[in-house]
Every structure is written in C-alpha cells, then in structure tokens.
Description:
The protein is α/β, with parallel strands linked by helices. Helix content is 34%, strand content 17%. The chain folds into 3 domains: 3-135 and 258-352 and 359-442, P-loop containing nucleotide triphosphate hydrolases (Rossmann fold, 3-Layer(aba) Sandwich), CATH 3.40.50; 136-254, Domain 2, N(10)-formyltetrahydrofolate synthetase, CATH 3.30.1510.10; 458-539, Roll (Formyltetrahydrofolate synthetase, domain 3), CATH 3.10.410.
Amino acid sequence: MSVAEARPLTALEIARRASLKPISDIAGQIGLAADHLELYGQHVAKVKLDAMTALAERPTARYVVVTAVTPTPLGEGKTTTTIGLAQGMAHIGKRATAAIRQASMGPTFGIKGGAAGGGYSQAAPFEALNLHLTGDLHAVTAAHNTLSAMVDNHLYQGNTLDIDPHSITWRRALDVNDRALRNIVAGLGTGEDGVPRQSGFDITAASEVMAVLALSTSLQDMRQRLGRIVIGFTEDSLPVTAEHLRAAGAMAVIMRDAIKPNLLQTIENTPVLVHAGPFGNIAHGNSSIIADLIGIRSGDFLITEAGFGADMGAERFFNIKCRVSGLVPDAAVIVTTVRAMKAHSGAHRIIAGKPLSPALLEENPAEVVTGGSNLRKQIENVRLHGVTPVVAINAFPEDFASEYDAIHEIARSMGVRCAVTTNFRDGGAGAVELAELVAAAAEEPNQFQFLYPDEAPLRGKIETIATRIYGADGADYSPSAGRRLEYLEASGFGNLPVCIAKTHLSISSDPALKGAPTGWRLPVREVRLSAGAGFVYAICGDMRTMPGLSSHPAAENIDIDHNGDVIGLS
C-alpha cells in the first residue's frame, strides 16, 4: 500500500467520492416540488418562499437544537454532530432534515476551515458550501455597503438629517479576515472624496444585515427590518435609520434572492438547509428562521445548530430566535469532547493552529471529572428553558474508555441521556445510539419557557442572563452603558430581547476562566442597538468583529490543480 493510500482521506476527498442525488430528488423527500426550486447546478438549489405555504398542511417535525459545552479554540464538532445526527435518524427509520449556517470565507481561508461538518458526516457539495455557495454572503456585503455609501454620501451632500458624525456606528463589511481594516479613516483626499471620519470594517458574518436575514420571516418582514437599522444619531440624539436615508429599498432589492434558503444534502443524501451565518459572539449565531419554517414541515425531525456553547448560541436560540419564529424546541443535544473537559480542568492551554499538548492526550479521567463542571452548567442552562438535554460525546481516536465513563457518570448523576458518537468516522451509523436517545427525549413532555418576559427592563434581562446562565454575581455598567440603557428604554426599545457579546471561550466574560467560574461580575462596557435585527446587545470585553489571519492561514494551502479542481480546502 502506498503512503497516499494509507493516509486518511480529507473531507474534500470524502465529499467527492460520495454518490450525491439530484437536488430535485432531495427536495422531493421533504415534500417540495420542482417549481419550488431555483437550481444552481445538479446539487444545489434555492427554495422559493412560497414553499412555506405549500408545506403548511404537512405535520410538524420534532425540533432539536444542537449546542455544546464551552468550546476550545479548535471547536468540538457541533456541525459534524448535527449532520451525523440527521444521518443517524435515517438509520433508525426517521426522516430528518438538518439546518445549518452558511460558511464564511474569512474563517475558511483563515484557521478554522470550512463549515460543512467533517469526515463522513458532512454536507455537500463541499466546495460549493464553503466557497460562495449561491452568493448570499456577497449580497449581505453589498447591501451593508450600499447603506455605508449612502451614509457618507449624505454627509457629503450637506447632512440635512443633522447626523452627528461621531455617533455613526455603521461601518463597512467584507467577507475576508483582514485585521488592517479594523480601523480606518474614510474620506481622505480632496474635498471631492467625501467627509473624513474614522470608521472600519467588520466581517460580513458580523453585519446586522446578516442578523436581519437570519431573523426575517418573509420578504416584507426583511424589508421592514432593514428600514429599522439605526446607523447613528442626530445632534439632538434622535436615531437615524436606513429608512431615513432612503437606503432600505435598495438593500431589500439586493437581498431579494439571498432570503431564499439553500437546499443541499449530506453525503448520505439527507436533506440540509443552509442559510445565513450571523456571528455567535456579537450576534445571535443561528441559521435562518425561514429555513426552519420550511424544515419544520419536512419530515419527522428538524435538527438545527446554535453557535458556540449553550451559554451563547443556545441561549439566543431560545430567547431571540424562538421568540420570533414561534417554534418550540423538543430537545437539545449538548456536544462535548474529552479534550474540552480536560481543557476546562484548567490544566491545559489549547491554541488554534498549534499541536495539542502531549499531556492533554494522556489518559486522565480525573481531569475530565474536574472539567465536567462546565458540562454540568451547560446542562443546567438548557434545563432553565424547560428543554430536555442529551449529551453527545464526539469521539476522537486518542480518547480512552475511562474518560468516556467519566462523562457518562456526570450525565447519569444529572439524569441526562448520553451517547458516544463516532459519526466523523462512521457517518450516520456512528450516531445511531444518539439518534435513538434524541428521539426518546423529544417525546417527553415539553415545558419550554423564555428566560425573561418582553416587558422586563433591559438591565433586568442582562442581569438574568448574567446570573442564571453565566453564574455571575451580577452586572456592572460603565457610565456610558448605563446612560445608553436609559435612553433605549425611554425611546421605546425596552421590550427587545438582549444579546450579550462576550468571549466564547468561557462561560464568564474572561476567556482565561475555565469550567464554571463563580464569584465574578459581568462588566458591561458598551450597549448598542440592533433595531433591524430586533435586539439590544451589551458588549462585555474586547470583541473582534474583523478577524485577522494567522502566521500560516489555510489560504496558503488552497489552490487549483492541473485539472482545474480545488485542492487544499479543509
């Protein structure tokens, strides 16, 4: 056997060897006719919005969200588990559809890689999903920057709205990791080149337009949300919106096709809806409501994924996304790994792009037990919303059975079902036990509840999340954050849910604190309004909305071979 034959296949190679079906066949599995589709080749299609009406009489699927413990910088395999679970459902005679976020090319060419899942549990076509797909992210970028251009043009043309240039929070967007664009000065040059002012770029996934796309329920709803986007304030502290600038109509036209979800399939021909990709630390970190409204009528189970840990993506799934969609989750999967539990013991440091410490790979169930405090808290966070959790242990080759036993014991002690999954290696067959446990959990009586009511004050909402989800003793506000909260309450925005922007590497606001830290307070540095998306976000710590590249980004390895095929994509 040659060295080339002996090495494991890459995700790209696995995807290329898969026997994919025509996307119209996949659509037929979920009750969609050919006239509901706009084809992008043989294996990708957009789903027209009238599909929601066409499917309205079909039974409602069980709704499952996949979340995780607080992740390491390498991630713990939520997308792989989401895809594997959907495939696993077919092995136990259930029809499932997965709904995931779209890949951002910044991380794809950076250090994280693609967002198609991995191994034998991935969505396909691999290249299409990770590179442009149907152009939705480019539409978000163009719509965002159209508003940016109209803001600066308004200043240049005389500023009849009396916008305070120093109050403008609307920046520019680009789907590239480029730290040099985090802070810029626009308008330099002659007087014909605009009004000079400090600004910057965010990655497209961090754009409010992306959050609007993910939370819209129809084309008209998206149009109204775009109009409500606040770009800054007048000299009299009144909000200035995209509607005031007469930019929202053009933005909606740019986004007219992007609002249609994308239909793909797994390498085992399970339907996958891929749509929207809001950041999980600065926004709500979930795929689109429209995809879910279609997927919820597609079979026995709709399995969706929430970004980062249960303290972040799942909390926002419950309190922001479900509040808008009206859909009620039946169960939640909490993904964990042995390495994550060891990391949360505080004994190891994991750095993205660097080899794992040899000590992390040694058999040590005691460390797993110590780091299990994080898993316990994330189980509690799911239960706070009245949802039944199931623990999925994403298996790695270097794990030991004794370490799995330690995680099983944590789950048993909390009365939670738990399964080891090998779907990365074995596809759906490796998620059969998990599928059976999730199916059983979804049959239990559901007591779903929001963490706070709409009418609660904004401070109360922030402090409820801080104390009940994060385990903080309370929240402290900078003077400017306190004043902004008072202003938003007085301006009629107090009924919005809150989205707390903090590190994803700890349940706390300090990335160095592992496990389930207590005895700390949440520092609210700044408060901003996302009126279009429909939430107020509290910034706690230094949030990067434009990632940078590492010393050896993935882009260095991506190329085209002599046949014109993509190589090096992971």
